[in-house]
Amino acid sequence: MKGSSDFTLPLQGPISDRQTVMVDSDRPTEFLDCGLVVRSIGYRSVQIDSDLPFDQARGVIHSIDSHGHVAEPLHRPVGADASLLYCTGWAKRGAVGVIVDTAMDARETGRTVLHDLAEAELHADPRVTQKPGLQPILSILRERDVRSVSFADWERVDAVERSIGKQLGKPREKLRSVESMLSAAFSEVQRHRNGQT
């Protein structure tokens, strides 16, 4: 990359993970000799549900604390409770930090979810004790003749990826298409249908 020109853009604001870059076109162009240029395009969360309280300016879901509790939804159905709704990572903090920061944040929010559920069960909170759970969803999927991917199905995908990876001298080789993942997930069913038990 020798001879390429670029602007050196200083960070502005107090030293923190919230510093910003301000473009100053009056600064002279600097020439930097380097062997590698990495361009970070950044990331911005988007509002996935119009009822979620979302800060468009910062690109984050509005959380009320550092544990990821989401603020009240904008249009909440009667009886719905936001206190068991969470966000984590860049959707909570914005596009700052590295993978480890996001992983640690996810763990923190996960611990909060487990703590909140344990507290709700301990106090016989109807938001938790009277939830129908997974069965209604499975019933709807069966009615619509949709085959969902179970944990056992995922384990078959995992085994196939590890097997292919082992042949290539790697821990795993990621299946890249939905079709190949579903084929691996449902491989037992396919073998049974073909008479290969």
TrEMBL record:
- A Gene Ontology MF term for this entry? oxidoreductase activity
InterPro entries, alphabetically? Answer: Ferredox_Rdtase (IPR055275)
Q: What species does this protein belong to?
A: Echinostoma caproni
* Cofactor(s) for this UniProt protein: FAD
Which keywords annotate this record? FAD, Flavoprotein, NADP, Oxidoreductase
Q: What is this protein called?
A: Xanthine dehydrogenase
Going by the entry's taxonomy, the superkingdom of the source organism is recorded as Eukaryota
